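Chain particulars:
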Amino acid sequence: MAPEDDILAQAREACDRRDAHRAETLYRKILATSPDSIRALRGLEGALRLQGRLGEANLVRDQANRIDAGHLIEAAQGLLKIGRVETALKAIRRALELDPTNDEALCTLGHIYRSEGDFSSAIEAYSGVPKDSPLRPVATYLRDILSGRPPREVPSEEIPRPAPVHMIRDFLTGAEYDALMAFTLSKRGGFNAARIRDGDYEPETRLSWVTDDTDAVQAWFLPKVKCLLPLVLKKLGLEPFEPKHFEVQITAHNERNFYKVHQDTGKSDEEQTSIRTVSFVYYFFKTPRKFSGGDLLLHSDVKDGLYAVSQFTRITPRNNSIVFFPSRCWHQVTPVHCETSEFQDGRFTVNGWILSAAGAGQ
C-alpha cells in the first residue's frame, strides 16, 4: 500500500471510531505534501463536520469542489478536441454543480452551446462569468456578438479570438425571394463545379456548384446590402470604409457537398489594389427543407494566422436570412445531406464579398 493510501486508511479508521481529531491530523499530514488530494480534502471535510466545525468544513468542501471542477473542465476540453460534445457537456454541467461561478467552466459551456448553434444558452453562460474574471472580456465580446450588439470589449490576442458575425432574418420581401428562387432554378444548366480562391478545382477541399451569372440579381440585391453596410461594420467592430468593388455568386449545395476550412481574403481579380474585407452569405431553399447539414462554422483565430479547431460559432442555415462576417475569419461549410437528388431541393446561397482599398476597414 502506498504511503498516502496507508495514511488515508488510518484516517478512515479513526473516523469510524469517532476519533475526529486523530482523523483530522492524518488528513492534514497528507495535505501538507499533496494539497490537491481530493480524497484527503473530502476526508478532512468529514472530520471537521464530526467536530461541529461547519464553517471550516464548508471551506474545505469548496476547495475540493474547485479542484474537482478543474479536473472536469480539463477533461471536457479534451473531449471537445476529439468531437465528443455530449460527454463534454455533461462534464461541464457537473463542474458547474460543484463550482457554479467557475469562469472557465462558464466560458467552456458557452463555447459548447455556440458550437451547437444554441445562441440563447451561450449568451446565458457567457453572462454568468464573474466581472473580476480575466475571461470576462472574451465572454462579454461573445455575448455582445451573439446578441447582435457591437462588441464593447476586444479579447486579448493571447487567447483564441472569436469571429465576429452579424445575422439578419427576413432579408428579402416575399416577391424578392420568389424572384431569386425562380432566377436560380432557371439557371440550373449554368452552374459549374465550384473552384477555390486561386481558380483551381479541388474537390477534396470544396465540392459544390456555382454560377457567376448574377448581374440581374445584383441590380436589386446589392443596394439592399449597401444600405446595411454602416450598421454591419459597426456590429463587426470594423472601421468604416467606402466599398471599391463587390463580388457575387450563387451557389448550390447538394448531397455530400462541403467546403473545408478557409479564408475569403484575397485581392480582386479586377482591382489588385482591393481586398475582400466583409463576406456575406444569404440562405434560401425550398420549404419544407429537404436537406440537413450545410452549417457555417466560424472558427476562432489564434496567433500567427492559425485557427482554433474546436472553438467556433455554428450558423445553421435559416431561410431568407443573411450573415455577415470579416473575410479574414477562418470558416467552413459542413457536409450537406439531401433527401432527394433533385437540384431544387438543395441548399442555395448568394455569396458575396465587399472589397475595400488594401488596408482599409481592418
Observations:
- The mean pLDDT is 91.
- Residues 84 and 314 are 16 Å apart (CA to CA).
- The chain has three domains: 3-52, 67-147, 166-357.
- The radius of gyration is 27 Å.
